[in-house]
Amino acid sequence: MSPRDIEIFRAVMTSGTTARAAQLLGISQPAVSQAVQRVELFAAVRLFERVRGRMIPTNEANVLMTSIERYFVGFETVEHVIRSLGSYKQGRLVVACFPALGNCFLPRAIAESHLDSLGIQLSLQVMSSREVHQQVQSGAVDIGLMASEMSTSGLDHSIFSALPGVIAMASDHPLAHRAVVTPADLQSDHFISLNKEDVTRRALEEALAREGITLRSIVETPYSISACELARCGVGLAFVHPIAAIDFIPRGLVIKRFSLDIPFQDQIIFRPGKPLYENTKSILKLLRLQLDKDCKQLQLALRGRKGTGRHE
User: Fold this and answer.
1) What pLDDT, on a 0 to 100 scale, did the predictor assign at position 95?
2) Belongs to which family (predicted)?
3) How far apart (Å, rounded) are the C-alpha atoms in residues 214 and 65?
């Protein structure tokens, strides 16, 4: 068995047939079948069931694929860095960010930043906090913004924001005229929950348990932006990242203070030992300025003011 056999096995797993794998790799179908047989022989287990021309992976194949994917993710990161070297210049900056800040907040900050005048070429990558952590650790990106559930061990880091979560709802919800939502109020409707591994969800549920409150969760989602849209559409109440909620307010989302102070904490991370160049410092300053603007918009929204445009 060779590394090429592993690559062919991976192609079969991702494409589903030996014919598609052969086309993907530019080799013959018999060559694909032979490589799969070599991997099976080496592993001494059956990796595929052959059903009507399709290769159905066994449990053993899925276990093997998990380990192989970790290798290829690292290899593809190196490959990406190599490809980008040709276009690298002193002003190039790569930022990886989790969706709560990456989908709307960072574009707002970039729009206000006048990158041309700063001589910065920016690459914005939106991904999960786990992926942000991996990309910073590997050196593929310069700046990472992630939620607090990931460990910062072995990385340079600082807290970017720690803002109390807000309760999001549709404009016609019975609680829309309340100034503050209490734990007991959350029993009045279905609830849109963040995923179970989210540290803020866990903190919310622990706090509610002390109050004797159990949520009627109807939808789970990993992203506050999805929870905001679901709440805006009337699916239920949601406890969301306040910065993620800003762009939904002009579209009809209502946010309210929650009587319990449960923060969403976000971190900026860097690879240790890597100097902060001037372009990096400039972007960090712009991000903090945008955060200040967004916090002012939040206060207006929480006081019931309708005007929450970017330039207010």
Assistant:
1) 93
2) Belongs to the LysR transcriptional regulatory family.
3) 39
DSSP output for 121-163: EEEEEE--HHHHHHHHHHTS-SEEEEETTS--TTSEEEEEEEE
Planar angle of CA 164, 95, 222, nearest 5 degrees: 45
Q: How far apart are CA 173 and CA 177, in angstroms?
A: 8
Q: Beta partners for 266?
A: 147, 161
Give the pair of three-digit tokens for residue 174: 């019975």
- Measured CA to CA, the distance from residue 295 to residue 312 in angstroms comes to 12
Whole-angstrom distance, CA of residue 215 vs CA of residue 277: 47
**pLDDT, tens only, 161-205:** 999 999 999 999 999 999 999 999 998 899 999 998 899 999 999
Domain extents for the chain? 3-83, 90-162+266-297, 163-264
Say if domain 90-162+266-297 classifies as CATH 3.40.190.10: yes
pLDDT tens digits for range 229-238: 999 999 999 9
Q: Does domain 3-83 have CATH number 3.40.50.620?
A: no
> Rounded to whole angstroms, how far apart are CA atoms 109 and 268?
15
CB neighbour list of residue 52: distance below 8 Å, 6 or more residues apart: none
- Asked whether the domain spanning 163-264 has the same topology as the one spanning 90-162+266-297, the reply is yes
pTM, entire model: 0.69
What's the rounded Cα separation, in Å, for the pair 150 and 129?
7
Asked whether residue 89 carries a pLDDT value surpassing 60, the answer given is: no
What are the phi and psi torsion angles at 49 (to 5°)? -100, 130
CATH architecture of 163-264: 3-Layer(aba) Sandwich (3.40)
Cβ neighbors of 171 (< 8 A, separation 6 or more) are: 252, 253, 254
